[in-house]
Write a structure and sequence with these properties.
The structure is a single chain. By secondary structure, the protein is mainly alpha-helical. Helix 2 (41-75) packs across helix 3. The chain has helices at 5-39, 41-75, 102-145; strands at 86-88, 98-100. It has a single domain, classed as Non-ribosomal Peptide Synthetase Peptidyl Carrier Protein, Chain A. The longest helix has 44 residues, at 102-145.
Length: 146
């Protein structure tokens, strides 16, 4: 018995639907695994940390550039650290001189120290709060035991 054109098209459509279903099942595992990965606490914490870190960097940059460095510059005799540089002439006669911008380096070192200090103070404060919470919980547990 010969197949008609309609039966042949129907068979092809069924095969295509089956292939699509198999592909969805295979990709569903990948999608599910990806969603589990994204929903892990560490990934979400990292994303939050990066976002907060970016905002915090802008604040620290402003603190260093707009408040601390002008004061340090006044103490150092009005020196603007960002303009401190050593210029080395080109002895070969081609191109410009080399510029070693050590003022920018000093500024970045001071900025790093400020960031490290602020983070240290935040962690120190969090540790203090955690110790108080743990001590309060221990006292409550001791009262229950009596």
């Amino acid at each position: 018995m010969a197949k008609t054109g309609t039966e042949n098209k129907s068979s092809k459509a069924e095969k295509a639907k089956e292939a699509l279903r198999v592909a969805r099942e295979k990709s569903g595992g990948f999608r599910k695994e990806f969603i589990e990965f994204i929903n892990r606490g560490s990934v979400v914490d990292l994303a939050v940390g990066v976002a907060v870190g970016g905002a915090f960097t802008a604040i620290v940059n402003s603190l260093v550039n707009d408040i601390i460095m002008p004061i340090v510059g006044l103490i150092a005799g009005g020196v603007d650290f960002t303009n401190l540089a050593i210029r080395i002439p080109n002895f070969f006669g081609t191109g410009d001189e080399a510029v070693i911008a050590y003022g920018n380096f000093l500024q970045n070192v001071i900025q790093f120290l400020i960031i490290a200090w602020v983070i240290f103070m935040i962690i120190k404060g969090m540790n203090r709060l955690n110790r108080r919470r743990d001590a309060k919980a221990a006292r409550a547990e001791a009262k229950k035991a009596l």
